Amino acid sequence: MGLIFNQMVEEDCLLGIWEIEENYDSLLSQLQLTSDEMATVESFKNYQRKLEWLSVRLLINKILNKPCCIVYNESRKPFLECNTYQISISHSHQLTSVLLSTKYKVGIDLEYMSHQIHRVAHKFINEKEYITSDISLQRLHLYIHWCAKEALYKICDKQDINFKQNLTILPFEVGSQGTIIGYVDNRFGHEEFQLHYTTYDGYVIVWCKK
């Protein structure tokens, strides 16, 4: 299906989403990879990982309307080689997403709600957080918390972060989309963030900027 979403979701934050329906050869044929990039994608043993890697690059090329190479720093944080955009990447199941900004640091997480997340909720939900008592909404509520914490983890460069101890999402009423508040408390200090979430066909997507 390819590009299914390409929109400025808030000031200087461009969100793109790709639905992977192509095979490896189809995705590869739409890209002009360097020899190093070819070596990288061919080194992946997992076929789905190859598709995700290719779809990220194709998605960025499509939404920016030009080829742009992704490189990683020593902590595996991605950025565009042209150094024009801050970037955050997430993929799950058949969707790939990227969030780009020329002015802000960004964080995004995308998850397909396929797991029994309640079994691991004790590992990332703390006593300050609220999960609805409505059984029909609990799974979604937990996934929003998880995605929000992943987005915060990424925007803080994955430094000194324990999901349960250092990240808190303030209580909110769950819906199909909305805005929530989260904060980070660690050795670097206290920082508050506004996060936005939406749902799509069994997926949860959460993003934020800094």
Description:
The structure is a single chain. The chain has 210 residues and is α+β, with helices and mostly antiparallel strands. The protein has 2 domains: 2-103, Alpha-Beta Complex (Ribosomal Protein L22, Chain A), CATH 3.90.470.20; 110-209, Nuclear Transport Factor 2, Chain: A, CATH 3.10.450. It has helices at 24-29, 35-43, 47-64, 135-155, and strands spanning 2-10, 13-19, 70-72, 78-80, 86-92, 95-101, 106-112, 167-169, 177-186, 189-200, 203-209. It has a 5-stranded antiparallel sheet, covered by helices on one side. Strands 1-2-6-5 form a 4-stranded antiparallel sheet, covered by helices on one side. A hairpin with a 2-residue loop joins strand 10 and strand 11 (203-209). The protein is globular. The protein starts with a strand and ends with a strand.
Q: Please give the domain count.
A: 2
**Helical fraction:** 25-40%
Order of strands across the main sheet: 7-11-10-9-8
**Radius of gyration (Å):** 17 Å
- Tally of contiguous helical segments: 4
Q: Which architecture of the largest domain does the CATH hierarchy give at level 2? A: Alpha-Beta Complex
What is the distance, rounded to the nearest whole angstrom, between the alpha carbons of the first and last residues? 32 Å
CATH topology of the largest domain: Ribosomal Protein L22, Chain A
Shape: globular
Number of separate strands: 11
Summarize the structure.
The chain has 210 residues and is α+β, with helices and mostly antiparallel strands. The chain contains 4 helices and 11 strands; from the N terminus they run E-E-H-H-H-E-E-E-E-E-H-E-E-E-E.
